[in-house]
Amino acid sequence: MSLLQYGFKRQKINEPLIQENEQNSENPQVGLKNSNYNKTFKIKWLSEFSWLRYDNDSKKMFCTICIKHKMKNKFATEGVANISKKSAVKEHVKSKDHNEAEKLETARIQMESLQNQLFLSDANVRYIIVVMRAVYFLSKNNLPL
């Protein structure tokens, strides 16, 4: 059962990082060299790859899906320091480990959904039984509905 169905929201892990980057883009620093700009992490990748996380302290990228499913690749274990190249992220998307982790995550979400539906179905069956017992009692005692 998920708290999301009761109005709770998922915490956005990279939200402070995105806000910080937006503030920096509004107030560009004078004297930035193009070579330094090219070696920075692109915040827009976070919206393109929902599983991608960036650790500002270690300056590395991580894959949350691979970490969650304990895959043995750089994005899951130690993080990737090649933060300026989108090709590293695209290669990871094509990797066998990442595809397997995505399949496991999809299966987990489907299983959770089925469990929620089963819980709701059980609750409905209980209500139907109560109503049927009431109808049976009324008809047995020749009482009007």
Automatic annotation (TrEMBL):
Where is each TTF-type domain found? Answer: 37-119
Pfam families registered for this protein in UniProt: zf-C17orf113 (PF25431)
At the top level, the lineage of the source is Eukaryota
Q: Which PANTHER family did the record assign? A: DUF4371 DOMAIN-CONTAINING PROTEIN, RAS-ASSOCIATING DOMAIN-CONTAINING PROTEIN
This chain belongs to which protein, by name? TTF-type domain-containing protein
Q: What organism is listed for this UniProt entry?
A: Glomus cerebriforme
